[in-house]
Design a protein that fits this description.
Elements: H1 4-14, H2 25-32, E1 36-41, H3 44-47, H4 49-64, E2 68-73, H5 76-85, E3 92-93, E4 96-97, H6 101-124, E5 129-132, E6 140-144, E7 153-158, H7 160-168, E8 172-175, E9 178-180, E10 186-188, H8 191-202, E11 206-211, E12 226-228, H9 229-237, H10 245-256, E13 262-267, H11 273-279, E14 286-289, H12 296-311
Parallel strand pairs: 1-2, 1-11, 2-8, 5-8, 11-13, 12-14
Antiparallel strand pairs: 3-4, 6-7, 9-10, 13-14
Length: 315
Amino acid sequence: MLSAKNLDNQIEQLWPDNGPSTKEVSKYLKKYQNEKIVIKCGGKVLLDPILLDGMIGDIAILKKLGLTPILVHGGGLGIKKKLDELNIESKFIMGLRVTDEKMIKIVEEIMIEFNKEIIKALEKKSCKAKSITIKENNIIYVEQENKELGYVGKPVKVNTDLLNDIIQKDFIPIVTPMGLDQKGQAYNINADTTAGALARSLKSRRLLLATDVEGVLDKNEKLISEIRSNEAEKLVNDQTIHGGMIPKIKTCIEAVNNGVRGVVIIDGRKPHSILFELFSDLGAGTLIRKWKNLNRSSIGSLILITHYILEKPKF
């Protein structure tokens, strides 16, 4: 952690113009000191150079301010693009891509490409990063999800010793969402599921799932800023939460019920959403946790009321 004397100057040098207010940053740096932050990045963010550069920039800031980010990247849209080029049709069951022997090789190829791209981008920002892939240093052991899905796995064990060793050597781990079974067979894993498994194993303070939507929406299509895990389950059961959001929410619920303090679904398309979530009172997206005292909506209201009282003209 940076010394108090140099902290303000360091923040000022690193902070983007359109990021959250720097007034709150010191408070949150103390909160997250010595804590691990697992971040999942996928969807359009990986295919859009501007969005990817923005997210990589935010992760570099976290590292330079003394936090411990761990990045899991997806690759679904890149895989789809490659399969389309090869005229290979994709089939999905419950949001998971059916993966045969030919397809698992394509998945691995695309994942390695994305991984290398992220490593290079972080190195350009003076951050050391380390690839974690099934070929170089596998940390995720799986069993088959079900026979219908083929080579799609669910994590059963994470080698946290290897992961922590990489972190101790001051690298940012960049993890591909793949794993090996007991026979050494490669399996594709949903990236949200992978991030959740890492966060649970590490008991991380926060798990951030960057996606292509604003967050969890209610029946009126309005953002829910904070929700308890049991309330989230009810929204799945009454189909307020549906489609591709269901596996994300299930990952969130499992994480917060197994030692992760909070999970946030954030919109990766919005500039500096990671910084707004970690370093501002209002946060970004939807926060899911087991308990809540004063929710983020209430905090937001108090901030606005306080601002009004302080700024109100005196006659």
